[in-house]
Structures are given as structure tokens and as C-alpha cells.
From TrEMBL:
<keyword id="KW-0472">Membrane</keyword>
<dbReference type="GO" id="GO:0005886">
    <property type="term" value="C:plasma membrane"/>
</dbReference>
<feature type="transmembrane region" description="Helical">
    <location>
        <begin position="103"/>
        <end position="129"/>
    </location>
</feature>
<dbReference type="Pfam" id="PF04657">
    <property type="entry name" value="DMT_YdcZ"/>
</dbReference>
<keyword id="KW-1133">Transmembrane helix</keyword>
<feature type="transmembrane region" description="Helical">
    <location>
        <begin position="141"/>
        <end position="159"/>
    </location>
</feature>
<keyword id="KW-0812">Transmembrane</keyword>
<feature type="transmembrane region" description="Helical">
    <location>
        <begin position="12"/>
        <end position="30"/>
    </location>
</feature>
<feature type="transmembrane region" description="Helical">
    <location>
        <begin position="42"/>
        <end position="65"/>
    </location>
</feature>
<feature type="transmembrane region" description="Helical">
    <location>
        <begin position="77"/>
        <end position="97"/>
    </location>
</feature>
<protein>
    <recommendedName>
        <fullName>EamA-like transporter family protein</fullName>
    </recommendedName>
</protein>
<dbReference type="InterPro" id="IPR006750">
    <property type="entry name" value="YdcZ"/>
</dbReference>
Length: 161
């Protein structure tokens, strides 16, 4: 297994991660509201349709700004790279449904975070998606335990609020 040297996070990276987490929470809330009024499938179509239109607009603006680049010699993307839309659609449908249950927004996001951390640790351990393999440490296990414990506290102690 290759070992990746530890690096200290830069303040800008921490701020960007914090901001993206806030935007993710807002997006989950908007998807949940769309799911409440139109259903989970409608919520997913709305989110991905809006994203598609925004991507087309950004690509059109970029094309006006500069000349097209030469085609890359690196080849094609791996087949699994095209599956992101499927997992994204499933995520939107599942979160827009679970937010409208007693889990609410905080419980849904807490469990989602626990799932993301568990999957990313598995990806590190086994080198999924072309990532370098990394041996998991006690610190990694401790992070998962704390996240799951916090999630359970949010879900079970926050029910009456």
C-alpha cells in the first residue's frame, strides 16, 4: 500500500469545505420542499434539470471566452465515471423523502455524513475509483464512531424538539 504524506489543511480549503456543507444543507432543504409538494421524482428532475441548464449556460459562456482546446490525448473517461448522475438522482430522491419524515433535515444530513465518511474510508482502503490505497488508522475508526454517535444523538434526542 502506498502511503500519502500528511498535509495540514489550508484555511481557504477549510472555509471552502464549510461553505459547501452549508450550500449542501440548503440544497437538501430545497429538494425536500420540492419533494413535499411534487414527490421525490419531481424533486430529482427539478434539481437535475436546473443543474443541466446551469451547466449549459456556463459552458456557453466559457466557449465565448476562449478558443476551444485541442482534444486531450489521455483517452476516454472510465465507464464508471458516467454513473454519477444515477447516484445523484437516487440521493436527491432519498433525501427529499427522508427529510419529510421524523428524521427531519438534521437527522437526514447526519446519516448522510456518516454514509459519506464510511464510503470514503472504504474507497481509501481498497483504492476504489483509481485512488491510491491507504491503510486505515484508529483515528479513522474514531471519526466514524464519533459521527455515528453524534448522528444518533441528533436523531433520538432531537425528536421531541
Amino acid at each position: 500500500m502506498s502511503s500519502i504524506p500528511a498535509q495540514r489543511p489550508k484555511p481557504l480549503h477549510l472555509l471552502a469545505a464549510f461553505a459547501s456543507g452549508g450550500l449542501l444543507t440548503f440544497a437538501v432543504f430545497i429538494n425536500a420542499e420540492a419533494g413535499r409538494y411534487g414527490g421525490a421524482l419531481y424533486s430529482s428532475w427539478l434539481a437535475h434539470g436546473t443543474g443541466t441548464l446551469a451547466a449549459i449556460l456556463v459552458l456557453a459562456l466559457l466557449r465565448l471566452r476562449r478558443r476551444p482546446a485541442e482534444p486531450s490525448a489521455s483517452g476516454k473517461a472510465p465507464l464508471w465515471a458516467y454513473l454519477g448522475g444515477i447516484s445523484g438522482a437516487a440521493t436527491v430522491m432519498l433525501t427529499s423523502t427522508s427529510v419529510n419524515t421524523p428524521l427531519a433535515l438534521a437527522g437526514t444530513l447526519a446519516l448522510g455524513l456518516a454514509g459519506q465518511v464510511a464510503f470514503s474510508l472504504a474507497a481509501d482502503q481498497w483504492g476504489l475509483f483509481g485512488l491510491p490505497r491507504r491503510r486505515l488508522t484508529g483515528r479513522d475508526a474514531g471519526a466514524v464512531v464519533l459521527i455515528v454517535a453524534g448522528s444518533l444523538l441528533i436523531i433520538f434526542l432531537g425528536m421531541g424538539s
